[in-house]
Amino acid sequence: MYFKFPKDFLWGAACSAYQIEGAWNEGGKGENCSDHYARLPETAKFFERGRPDVCSDFYHHYREDIAIMKENNLKSFRFSISWPRLFPNGPDELNQAGADYYNDLFNTLVENGIQPFVDLFHWDLPQWVYDRGGPVVYEFVDWFEKYARTAFSLFGDRVKMWSTMNEPNFSFGGYTPSAVEIHEGSGNEPPYENSIHKAFMTCHILNLAHLRAVKVYHEMNLGGKIGMVIDGFPFYPFSLAEEKDSIAAERAFDLYAGKWLGPMMLGRYPEVVEDSYAEYLPENFQQEIADAYEEMDFIGENYYAAGYAYGIDEKPYFALCGDYETIEGEDRNEGYHIRRNPTGFYDILMILKNKYHAKEIIVTENGICFERDKKNLSKPTTIHDEERIRYLSDHIPMIARAIASGANVTGYYIWAIEDTFEAGSGFDLDFGLIAIDYDTMERTARDSFKWYGRFIKANT
Ligand code: NOJ
Protein backbone atom coordinates (compact mmCIF):
# COMPACT_ATOMS: atom_id res chain seq x y z
CA MET A 1 0.00 0.00 0.00
CA TYR A 2 1.28 3.46 -0.87
CA PHE A 3 -0.24 5.12 2.15
CA LYS A 4 0.27 3.12 5.27
CA PHE A 5 -1.17 3.95 8.67
CA PRO A 6 -0.46 2.32 12.02
CA LYS A 7 -3.10 -0.29 12.92
CA ASP A 8 -4.04 1.48 16.13
CA PHE A 9 -4.42 4.89 14.46
CA LEU A 10 -7.49 6.68 15.83
CA TRP A 11 -9.91 7.38 13.01
CA GLY A 12 -12.56 9.68 14.35
CA ALA A 13 -14.97 12.52 13.84
CA ALA A 14 -15.56 15.58 15.97
CA CYS A 15 -18.01 18.15 17.21
CA SER A 16 -18.58 20.43 20.18
CA ALA A 17 -21.34 20.66 22.77
CA TYR A 18 -22.92 23.98 21.89
CA GLN A 19 -22.87 23.26 18.13
CA ILE A 20 -25.08 20.15 18.31
CA GLU A 21 -26.28 19.52 21.84
CA GLY A 22 -29.19 21.97 21.99
CA ALA A 23 -31.26 21.64 25.19
CA TRP A 24 -29.89 25.07 26.03
CA ASN A 25 -32.05 25.47 29.14
CA GLU A 26 -32.75 21.84 30.03
CA GLY A 27 -31.26 19.50 32.60
CA GLY A 28 -30.20 22.35 34.89
CA LYS A 29 -27.80 23.85 32.32
CA GLY A 30 -26.81 27.49 32.82
CA GLU A 31 -26.45 30.09 30.08
CA ASN A 32 -23.34 29.98 27.95
CA CYS A 33 -22.06 33.17 26.33
CA SER A 34 -23.84 32.47 23.01
CA ASP A 35 -27.16 31.82 24.75
CA HIS A 36 -26.72 35.14 26.49
CA TYR A 37 -25.53 37.43 23.69
CA ALA A 38 -28.01 35.95 21.21
CA ARG A 39 -30.77 37.34 23.42
CA LEU A 40 -29.36 40.83 24.00
CA PRO A 41 -30.79 43.40 21.56
CA GLU A 42 -27.34 44.95 20.91
CA THR A 43 -25.69 41.68 19.93
CA ALA A 44 -28.61 39.66 18.54
CA LYS A 45 -27.46 40.65 15.02
CA PHE A 46 -24.57 38.19 15.34
CA PHE A 47 -27.16 35.40 15.59
CA GLU A 48 -29.56 36.50 12.89
CA ARG A 49 -28.93 33.24 11.01
CA GLY A 50 -29.99 31.16 14.00
CA ARG A 51 -29.32 30.50 17.65
CA PRO A 52 -27.82 27.32 19.08
CA ASP A 53 -30.91 26.56 21.20
CA VAL A 54 -31.83 23.20 19.70
CA CYS A 55 -29.33 22.43 16.90
CA SER A 56 -29.45 18.74 15.98
CA ASP A 57 -30.71 18.02 19.50
CA PHE A 58 -27.80 15.66 20.19
CA TYR A 59 -28.73 15.94 23.89
CA HIS A 60 -31.77 13.76 23.18
CA HIS A 61 -30.47 11.85 20.15
CA TYR A 62 -26.96 10.76 21.14
CA ARG A 63 -27.79 7.06 21.34
CA GLU A 64 -29.07 7.13 17.77
CA ASP A 65 -26.00 9.04 16.60
CA ILE A 66 -23.61 6.69 18.38
CA ALA A 67 -25.33 3.76 16.65
CA ILE A 68 -24.58 5.41 13.26
CA MET A 69 -20.96 6.02 14.33
CA LYS A 70 -20.60 2.35 15.21
CA GLU A 71 -22.21 1.20 11.98
CA ASN A 72 -19.54 3.18 10.11
CA ASN A 73 -16.61 1.81 12.10
CA LEU A 74 -15.67 5.05 13.86
CA LYS A 75 -12.91 4.46 16.42
CA SER A 76 -13.14 7.70 18.34
CA PHE A 77 -15.50 10.63 18.86
CA ARG A 78 -14.16 14.05 19.84
CA PHE A 79 -16.68 16.14 21.73
CA SER A 80 -16.69 18.89 24.34
CA ILE A 81 -18.26 19.18 27.74
CA SER A 82 -20.43 22.23 28.23
CA TRP A 83 -18.94 23.94 31.30
CA PRO A 84 -22.27 25.65 32.18
CA ARG A 85 -24.02 22.27 32.05
CA LEU A 86 -21.72 21.08 34.83
CA PHE A 87 -21.43 24.41 36.66
CA PRO A 88 -24.51 26.53 35.79
CA ASN A 89 -24.23 29.32 38.34
CA GLY A 90 -20.63 29.73 39.36
CA PRO A 91 -17.45 27.79 40.04
CA ASP A 92 -18.66 25.92 43.14
CA GLU A 93 -21.98 24.23 42.61
CA LEU A 94 -22.02 21.05 40.48
CA ASN A 95 -25.20 20.28 38.52
CA GLN A 96 -25.70 16.55 39.06
CA ALA A 97 -28.05 16.23 36.07
CA GLY A 98 -25.25 17.51 33.83
CA ALA A 99 -22.80 15.00 35.29
CA ASP A 100 -25.37 12.21 34.77
CA TYR A 101 -25.85 13.17 31.13
CA TYR A 102 -22.14 13.11 30.32
CA ASN A 103 -21.68 9.89 32.30
CA ASP A 104 -24.28 8.22 30.15
CA LEU A 105 -22.83 9.70 26.95
CA PHE A 106 -19.32 8.42 27.72
CA ASN A 107 -20.63 5.03 28.90
CA THR A 108 -22.58 4.62 25.68
CA LEU A 109 -19.52 5.47 23.59
CA VAL A 110 -17.28 3.07 25.48
CA GLU A 111 -19.88 0.27 25.36
CA ASN A 112 -19.93 0.69 21.58
CA GLY A 113 -16.16 0.49 21.31
CA ILE A 114 -15.75 4.22 20.50
CA GLN A 115 -13.06 6.11 22.42
CA PRO A 116 -14.16 9.48 23.76
CA PHE A 117 -11.80 12.44 23.24
CA VAL A 118 -13.00 15.37 25.33
CA ASP A 119 -12.39 19.12 25.09
CA LEU A 120 -13.04 21.03 28.29
CA PHE A 121 -13.69 24.32 26.56
CA HIS A 122 -14.93 24.75 23.01
CA TRP A 123 -16.18 28.35 22.77
CA ASP A 124 -19.10 28.16 25.19
CA LEU A 125 -17.83 29.80 28.37
CA PRO A 126 -20.50 30.07 31.04
CA GLN A 127 -22.05 33.53 31.08
CA TRP A 128 -21.16 33.78 34.77
CA VAL A 129 -17.50 33.89 33.67
CA TYR A 130 -18.17 37.08 31.68
CA ASP A 131 -20.35 38.48 34.47
CA ARG A 132 -17.36 38.12 36.81
CA GLY A 133 -14.91 39.85 34.49
CA GLY A 134 -14.33 37.34 31.68
CA PRO A 135 -11.33 35.20 30.79
CA VAL A 136 -9.16 38.26 31.42
CA VAL A 137 -9.05 38.10 35.23
CA TYR A 138 -6.60 35.92 37.15
CA GLU A 139 -9.45 34.24 39.12
CA PHE A 140 -10.38 32.53 35.84
CA VAL A 141 -7.40 30.22 36.30
CA ASP A 142 -8.84 28.93 39.60
CA TRP A 143 -12.34 28.54 38.15
CA PHE A 144 -10.96 26.58 35.23
CA GLU A 145 -8.88 24.40 37.53
CA LYS A 146 -11.93 23.56 39.63
CA TYR A 147 -13.94 22.65 36.53
CA ALA A 148 -11.11 20.62 35.01
CA ARG A 149 -10.42 18.75 38.25
CA THR A 150 -14.11 17.87 38.58
CA ALA A 151 -14.33 16.63 34.99
CA PHE A 152 -11.16 14.54 35.37
CA SER A 153 -12.46 12.89 38.56
CA LEU A 154 -15.97 12.32 37.23
CA PHE A 155 -15.05 10.94 33.80
CA GLY A 156 -11.30 10.23 33.81
CA ASP A 157 -11.78 6.48 34.25
CA ARG A 158 -13.41 6.31 30.78
CA VAL A 159 -12.02 9.38 29.04
CA LYS A 160 -8.32 8.91 28.33
CA MET A 161 -7.85 11.76 25.88
CA TRP A 162 -8.39 15.35 26.97
CA SER A 163 -7.87 18.76 25.51
CA THR A 164 -8.01 21.85 27.70
CA MET A 165 -9.38 24.11 24.98
CA ASN A 166 -10.20 24.39 21.30
CA GLU A 167 -8.95 27.28 19.11
CA PRO A 168 -8.62 29.87 21.87
CA ASN A 169 -8.23 32.55 19.19
CA PHE A 170 -12.03 32.55 19.34
CA SER A 171 -11.95 34.09 22.83
CA PHE A 172 -9.18 36.50 21.76
CA GLY A 173 -11.62 37.54 19.01
CA GLY A 174 -14.09 38.67 21.65
CA TYR A 175 -12.08 41.86 22.06
CA THR A 176 -10.58 42.66 18.67
CA PRO A 177 -11.58 41.84 15.07
CA SER A 178 -8.56 39.70 14.14
CA ALA A 179 -6.21 37.35 15.96
CA VAL A 180 -3.34 38.11 13.57
CA GLU A 181 -3.86 41.51 11.92
CA ILE A 182 -4.41 43.12 15.28
CA HIS A 183 -6.18 46.47 15.34
CA GLU A 184 -8.79 48.47 17.24
CA GLY A 185 -12.43 47.50 16.68
CA SER A 186 -15.13 45.38 18.27
CA GLY A 187 -14.62 41.68 18.48
CA ASN A 188 -16.81 39.40 16.40
CA GLU A 189 -17.32 36.91 19.21
CA PRO A 190 -18.68 37.20 22.75
CA PRO A 191 -18.45 39.64 24.51
CA TYR A 192 -18.06 41.81 21.34
CA GLU A 193 -15.85 44.43 23.03
CA ASN A 194 -13.08 46.63 21.69
CA SER A 195 -9.87 46.26 23.72
CA ILE A 196 -6.53 45.01 22.44
CA HIS A 197 -5.41 44.95 26.05
CA LYS A 198 -8.21 42.54 27.02
CA ALA A 199 -7.49 40.40 23.96
CA PHE A 200 -3.90 39.86 25.09
CA MET A 201 -4.98 39.37 28.70
CA THR A 202 -7.36 36.66 27.47
CA CYS A 203 -4.41 35.06 25.75
CA HIS A 204 -2.30 35.19 28.89
CA ILE A 205 -5.03 33.97 31.25
CA LEU A 206 -6.04 31.11 28.95
CA ASN A 207 -2.40 30.07 28.64
CA LEU A 208 -2.09 30.05 32.43
CA ALA A 209 -5.38 28.17 32.81
CA HIS A 210 -4.21 25.56 30.30
CA LEU A 211 -0.88 25.07 32.10
CA ARG A 212 -2.65 24.72 35.45
CA ALA A 213 -5.10 22.12 34.11
CA VAL A 214 -2.29 20.11 32.49
CA LYS A 215 -0.42 20.09 35.81
CA VAL A 216 -3.52 18.94 37.70
CA TYR A 217 -4.20 16.19 35.18
CA HIS A 218 -0.66 14.89 35.41
CA GLU A 219 -0.77 14.98 39.23
CA MET A 220 -4.00 12.99 39.24
CA ASN A 221 -2.23 10.18 37.43
CA LEU A 222 -5.26 8.87 35.56
CA GLY A 223 -3.32 7.11 32.85
CA GLY A 224 -4.49 9.22 29.91
CA LYS A 225 -3.16 12.10 27.82
CA ILE A 226 -3.85 15.80 27.77
CA GLY A 227 -3.19 18.41 25.08
CA MET A 228 -4.77 21.43 23.48
CA VAL A 229 -6.31 22.11 20.07
CA ILE A 230 -4.97 24.87 17.83
CA ASP A 231 -6.00 26.13 14.39
CA GLY A 232 -2.39 26.38 13.31
CA PHE A 233 -2.43 27.27 9.68
CA PRO A 234 0.89 27.63 7.97
CA PHE A 235 1.79 31.03 6.52
CA TYR A 236 3.95 31.18 3.40
CA PRO A 237 6.11 34.06 2.17
CA PHE A 238 4.42 35.95 -0.66
CA SER A 239 7.73 35.97 -2.51
CA LEU A 240 10.32 33.33 -1.81
CA ALA A 241 12.91 35.68 -3.28
CA GLU A 242 12.42 38.18 -0.44
CA GLU A 243 14.04 37.27 2.85
CA LYS A 244 11.81 39.71 4.67
CA ASP A 245 8.73 37.88 3.36
CA SER A 246 10.06 34.63 4.81
CA ILE A 247 10.64 36.29 8.16
CA ALA A 248 7.18 37.87 7.90
CA ALA A 249 5.53 34.48 7.28
CA GLU A 250 7.08 33.03 10.40
CA ARG A 251 6.11 36.06 12.47
CA ALA A 252 2.52 35.81 11.24
CA PHE A 253 2.43 32.17 12.30
CA ASP A 254 3.98 33.03 15.66
CA LEU A 255 1.40 35.68 16.31
CA TYR A 256 -1.60 33.66 15.20
CA ALA A 257 -0.76 30.22 16.61
CA GLY A 258 2.54 30.77 18.43
CA LYS A 259 1.08 33.06 21.09
CA TRP A 260 -0.53 29.82 22.35
CA LEU A 261 1.92 27.15 21.22
CA GLY A 262 4.97 29.09 22.49
CA PRO A 263 3.81 29.23 26.13
CA MET A 264 2.25 25.77 25.99
CA MET A 265 5.07 23.89 24.28
CA LEU A 266 8.21 25.95 24.87
CA GLY A 267 7.36 27.83 28.06
CA ARG A 268 7.64 31.30 26.48
CA TYR A 269 5.89 33.75 24.22
CA PRO A 270 7.44 34.20 20.77
CA GLU A 271 9.54 37.21 19.84
CA VAL A 272 6.73 38.90 17.90
CA VAL A 273 4.62 39.13 21.06
CA GLU A 274 7.60 40.34 23.06
CA ASP A 275 8.74 43.01 20.59
CA SER A 276 5.36 44.26 19.33
CA TYR A 277 2.65 43.63 21.94
CA ALA A 278 4.32 43.52 25.38
CA GLU A 279 2.58 46.78 26.36
CA TYR A 280 -0.74 44.89 26.49
CA LEU A 281 0.53 42.22 28.87
CA PRO A 282 1.57 42.29 32.55
CA GLU A 283 5.17 43.32 33.13
CA ASN A 284 6.41 39.83 34.06
CA PHE A 285 4.39 37.90 31.48
CA GLN A 286 7.27 35.69 30.35
CA GLN A 287 8.15 34.78 33.93
CA GLU A 288 4.56 33.94 34.81
CA ILE A 289 4.48 31.44 31.97
CA ALA A 290 7.88 30.00 32.85
CA ASP A 291 6.75 29.49 36.47
CA ALA A 292 3.50 27.79 35.48
CA TYR A 293 4.97 25.71 32.63
CA GLU A 294 3.94 22.07 32.35
CA GLU A 295 4.46 20.29 29.06
CA MET A 296 1.34 18.84 27.47
CA ASP A 297 1.28 15.36 25.93
CA PHE A 298 0.13 16.14 22.39
CA ILE A 299 -0.85 18.99 20.10
CA GLY A 300 -4.31 18.86 18.52
CA GLU A 301 -4.34 20.45 15.07
CA ASN A 302 -7.41 21.79 13.23
CA TYR A 303 -6.50 22.20 9.57
CA TYR A 304 -8.59 24.11 7.01
CA ALA A 305 -6.35 26.57 5.16
CA ALA A 306 -2.96 28.18 4.66
CA GLY A 307 -2.12 31.89 4.54
CA TYR A 308 0.44 34.25 2.94
CA ALA A 309 2.43 37.16 4.38
CA TYR A 310 4.95 39.77 3.27
CA GLY A 311 7.39 41.96 5.14
CA ILE A 312 6.70 45.60 6.03
CA ASP A 313 8.86 48.13 7.86
CA GLU A 314 6.56 48.86 10.80
CA LYS A 315 5.67 46.62 13.70
CA PRO A 316 4.75 43.78 13.69
CA TYR A 317 6.86 43.61 10.46
CA PHE A 318 4.37 41.56 8.47
CA ALA A 319 1.08 41.96 6.62
CA LEU A 320 -1.17 39.29 5.17
CA CYS A 321 -2.16 38.78 1.56
CA GLY A 322 -3.49 36.11 -0.80
CA ASP A 323 -1.11 33.89 -2.76
CA TYR A 324 -0.20 34.40 -6.44
CA GLU A 325 -3.01 32.14 -7.60
CA THR A 326 -5.65 34.00 -5.65
CA ILE A 327 -4.38 37.37 -6.73
CA GLU A 328 -4.38 36.28 -10.34
CA GLY A 329 -7.93 35.09 -9.99
CA GLU A 330 -7.62 31.34 -9.75
CA ASP A 331 -9.12 30.94 -6.35
CA ARG A 332 -8.89 27.74 -4.37
CA ASN A 333 -11.41 29.10 -1.95
CA GLU A 334 -14.01 26.54 -0.93
CA GLY A 335 -16.17 29.24 0.58
CA TYR A 336 -16.31 30.22 4.21
CA HIS A 337 -12.79 30.03 5.68
CA ILE A 338 -11.76 26.88 3.84
CA ARG A 339 -9.01 26.91 1.24
CA ARG A 340 -8.08 23.61 -0.31
CA ASN A 341 -4.35 23.19 0.15
CA PRO A 342 -3.28 19.64 1.05
CA THR A 343 0.42 20.57 0.95
CA GLY A 344 -0.27 23.04 3.72
CA PHE A 345 -1.65 20.15 5.75
CA TYR A 346 1.61 18.24 5.45
CA ASP A 347 3.60 21.41 6.22
CA ILE A 348 1.72 22.25 9.41
CA LEU A 349 2.25 18.75 10.76
CA MET A 350 5.98 19.14 10.11
CA ILE A 351 6.04 22.61 11.71
CA LEU A 352 4.47 21.17 14.85
CA LYS A 353 7.07 18.41 14.88
CA ASN A 354 10.11 20.51 14.07
CA LYS A 355 9.43 23.88 15.64
CA TYR A 356 7.54 22.74 18.75
CA HIS A 357 9.08 19.27 19.16
CA ALA A 358 5.61 17.73 19.46
CA LYS A 359 5.96 14.23 20.86
CA GLU A 360 2.53 13.44 19.49
CA ILE A 361 0.16 15.19 17.09
CA ILE A 362 -3.54 14.47 16.66
CA VAL A 363 -5.44 16.01 13.75
CA THR A 364 -8.47 17.13 15.70
CA GLU A 365 -10.34 18.69 12.75
CA ASN A 366 -10.30 18.65 8.98
CA GLY A 367 -13.26 18.84 6.66
CA ILE A 368 -15.33 20.78 4.21
CA CYS A 369 -18.81 22.33 4.14
CA PHE A 370 -21.59 22.91 1.61
CA GLU A 371 -24.27 25.57 1.60
CA ARG A 372 -27.88 24.71 2.32
CA ASP A 373 -30.61 25.96 0.05
CA LYS A 374 -31.40 29.41 1.48
CA LYS A 375 -35.11 28.95 0.80
CA ASN A 376 -35.28 25.68 2.68
CA LEU A 377 -32.72 25.83 5.45
CA SER A 378 -34.15 23.02 7.52
CA LYS A 379 -33.34 20.46 4.81
CA PRO A 380 -29.78 19.11 4.48
CA THR A 381 -27.59 19.36 1.40
CA THR A 382 -27.19 16.23 -0.68
CA ILE A 383 -26.52 12.87 0.90
CA HIS A 384 -24.34 12.00 -2.13
CA ASP A 385 -21.39 14.22 -1.29
CA GLU A 386 -18.65 13.04 -3.68
CA GLU A 387 -16.90 16.38 -3.35
CA ARG A 388 -16.31 15.76 0.36
CA ILE A 389 -14.90 12.32 -0.45
CA ARG A 390 -12.50 13.97 -2.90
CA TYR A 391 -11.46 16.53 -0.30
CA LEU A 392 -10.77 13.81 2.27
CA SER A 393 -8.91 11.74 -0.30
CA ASP A 394 -6.67 14.74 -1.04
CA HIS A 395 -5.88 15.36 2.62
CA ILE A 396 -5.61 11.99 4.36
CA PRO A 397 -2.49 10.85 2.41
CA MET A 398 -0.65 13.89 3.79
CA ILE A 399 -0.81 12.30 7.22
CA ALA A 400 0.93 9.19 5.92
CA ARG A 401 3.60 11.41 4.38
CA ALA A 402 4.11 13.27 7.65
CA ILE A 403 4.38 9.98 9.53
CA ALA A 404 6.95 8.77 6.99
CA SER A 405 8.87 12.04 7.62
CA GLY A 406 9.00 11.33 11.34
CA ALA A 407 5.95 13.13 12.75
CA ASN A 408 4.16 11.02 15.36
CA VAL A 409 0.59 11.60 14.15
CA THR A 410 -1.74 9.23 15.99
CA GLY A 411 -5.27 10.30 15.09
CA TYR A 412 -7.47 12.09 12.58
CA TYR A 413 -10.94 13.53 13.23
CA ILE A 414 -13.22 14.71 10.47
CA TRP A 415 -15.18 17.86 11.24
CA ALA A 416 -18.02 17.30 11.74
CA ILE A 417 -19.79 14.17 12.85
CA GLU A 418 -23.09 15.81 11.87
CA ASP A 419 -24.51 19.08 10.57
CA THR A 420 -23.89 21.82 13.10
CA PHE A 421 -24.48 25.34 14.25
CA GLU A 422 -21.58 27.55 13.04
CA ALA A 423 -20.64 30.62 15.07
CA GLY A 424 -20.25 32.71 11.90
CA SER A 425 -23.15 31.41 9.81
CA GLY A 426 -25.79 29.71 11.91
CA PHE A 427 -27.28 26.71 10.13
CA ASP A 428 -26.41 27.71 6.52
CA LEU A 429 -23.49 25.32 6.09
CA ASP A 430 -23.34 21.55 6.27
CA PHE A 431 -20.14 20.02 7.58
CA GLY A 432 -21.69 16.72 8.62
CA LEU A 433 -20.87 13.12 7.89
CA ILE A 434 -24.42 12.68 9.13
CA ALA A 435 -27.07 14.89 7.50
CA ILE A 436 -29.67 16.47 9.75
CA ASP A 437 -33.19 17.40 8.77
CA TYR A 438 -34.01 20.12 11.31
CA ASP A 439 -37.79 19.71 10.81
CA THR A 440 -37.96 16.02 11.62
CA MET A 441 -34.56 15.54 13.31
CA GLU A 442 -34.07 12.63 10.95
CA ARG A 443 -30.40 11.65 10.63
CA THR A 444 -28.92 10.08 7.50
CA ALA A 445 -25.34 8.96 6.97
CA ARG A 446 -23.93 10.76 3.91
CA ASP A 447 -21.96 8.82 1.27
CA SER A 448 -18.77 10.31 2.73
CA PHE A 449 -19.45 8.59 6.06
CA LYS A 450 -19.95 5.24 4.33
CA TRP A 451 -16.76 5.83 2.37
CA TYR A 452 -14.91 6.74 5.60
CA GLY A 453 -16.28 3.62 7.28
CA ARG A 454 -14.91 1.42 4.48
CA PHE A 455 -11.62 3.31 4.58
CA ILE A 456 -11.32 2.77 8.34
CA LYS A 457 -11.99 -0.93 7.94
CA ALA A 458 -9.31 -1.23 5.29
CA ASN A 459 -6.82 0.65 7.45
CA THR A 460 -7.15 -1.05 10.83
C1 NOJ B 1 -13.12 25.07 13.97
C2 NOJ B 1 -13.95 25.05 15.21
O1 NOJ B 1 -13.30 24.34 16.22
C3 NOJ B 1 -15.35 24.53 15.00
O2 NOJ B 1 -16.12 24.90 16.11
C4 NOJ B 1 -15.93 25.05 13.70
O3 NOJ B 1 -17.25 24.62 13.52
C5 NOJ B 1 -15.05 24.56 12.58
N1 NOJ B 1 -13.75 25.16 12.72
C6 NOJ B 1 -15.57 24.89 11.16
O4 NOJ B 1 -15.64 26.25 10.99
Q: How are the elements arranged and paired?
A:
Layout lengths: L9 E5 L2 H4 L12 H6 L19 H14 L4 E5 L2 H4 L9 H16 L3 E5 L7 H5 L7 H17 L5 E6 L2 H4 L23 H25 L4 E6 L4 E3 L5 H14 L1 H9 L4 H6 L8 H8 L5 E6 L3 E4 L8 E3 L2 H4 L14 H13 L6 E6 L3 E2 L14 H19 L4 E7 L13 E2 L3 E3 L6 E3 L1 H12 L2
Parallel strand pairs: 1-2, 1-12, 2-3, 3-4, 4-5, 5-7, 6-8, 7-10, 10-12
Antiparallel strand pairs: 8-9, 11-13, 14-15
Helix pairs in contact: 3-5, 7-9, 9-11, 9-13, 10-11, 15-16
1-deoxynojirimycin (NOJ) binds next to loops.
Notes on the structure:
The protein has 460 residues and is of the alpha/beta class. Helix content is 39%, strand content 14%. It has helices spanning 17-20, 33-38, 58-71, 83-86, 96-111, 127-131, 139-155, 169-172, 196-220, 243-256, 258-266, 271-276, 285-292, 324-327, 342-354, 386-404, 447-458; strands spanning 10-14, 76-80, 115-119, 161-166, 225-230, 235-237, 298-303, 307-310, 319-321, 361-366, 370-371, 409-415, 429-430, 434-436, 443-445. The strands form 4 sheets. The chain has an 8-stranded parallel barrel with strand order 1-2-3-4-5-7-10-12, surrounded by 4 helices. Strands 6-8-9 form a 3-stranded mixed sheet, with helices on one face. A hairpin with an 8-residue loop joins strand 8 and strand 9 (319-321). The radius of gyration is 21 Å and the shape is globular. The site of 1-deoxynojirimycin has 9 residues, from loops.
